[in-house]
Amino acid sequence: MRTLERMEPSVVDKRWVTTRYGEIAYLETGPSGKPPVLFVHGIPTSSFLWRHVIDLLAADFHCYAPDLLGLGDTEVSVDADVFHMDAQAEMLVDFMTTLGHERFGLVCHDQGGAAAQIIAARHPERVASFVLTNCVCYDNWPVPVIRRLQKLSKLPLLSELMTRSGLSERLETSMRWSSFRRGVYHPNALTNEAIREYLRPMRTSRRGRFRAFLLAGEPEYTMAAVDGLRKFAAPTLVVWAADDRFLSPSWGRQLADDIPGCDRFELVPFCGHFWQEEKPREFAALIGPFLAASMPCEDADDHPVRLPVLVH
Known about the structure:
Elements: E1 15-19, E2 22-29, E3 36-40, H1 51-56, E4 62-66, H2 85-98, E5 104-110, H3 112-122, E6 127-135, H4 144-153, H5 156-164, H6 167-174, H7 192-199, H8 207-215, H9 220-229, E7 236-241, H10 249-258, E8 262-268, H11 275-278, H12 280-294
Parallel strand pairs: 3-4, 3-5, 5-6, 6-7, 7-8
Antiparallel strand pairs: 1-2, 2-4
Helix pairs in contact: 2-3, 3-9, 6-7
């Protein structure tokens, strides 16, 4: 494993590990002796989405948040046929195997939920516990805002002009109801600095990889995983931000009903789609006890779990 220098570095310190799919950029927190947990982001975010949550859980879990193929700082050839969700799922399994983990907790969000559902359906023996939050599922995606981006990306000259000129970034940071700010309950909860970090890879040669990821998004992958999900018996928690303008809580309830291992559905008020940005402490406090109960640490008696405390 090695840490690489990259042009236009992220505002958070990332590591890279070489897999057969490419060099995967990731965030890592927590001691190696704690239960491993894999956090999967969606589009147009990156591992940066999980930075607060994994810091809050770092005392009790060994947390990994990789950048998916085509997003963030992961290095992969734009010509590779690896941007669809089947390949993303296999990359994530390979990523954890490379890091020495055959079994792990799995937490997913947004379009990363498609890859995570494929893992649960195809490799259930690898998943010790499963958390789904505000993620695509069944045939509910791409959501309208992503569908519009897909159409725009088919006009490469216009798309290139908007990103290279910085117009997309200016619109997203200056408009109160930009696509990013529609993703939080309180528009000010998502800072301009955070939005710029999510958009940073699109200012570079990685634009082509983002476009490949964008165009590979199709619901056939989640529909193919449904039968496997309906047999998935490992402990599962579905937790949903109630004020998500992109993915209705009804989808979370359907997932909770369909997955045999799920005996709990949590609906969290006053937060939107990117609620890891506006309520990370609440998120960590919800999933921490669940992960601890379903993935006990071998030295749990000597080192009790120290979960985040909510302050009201």
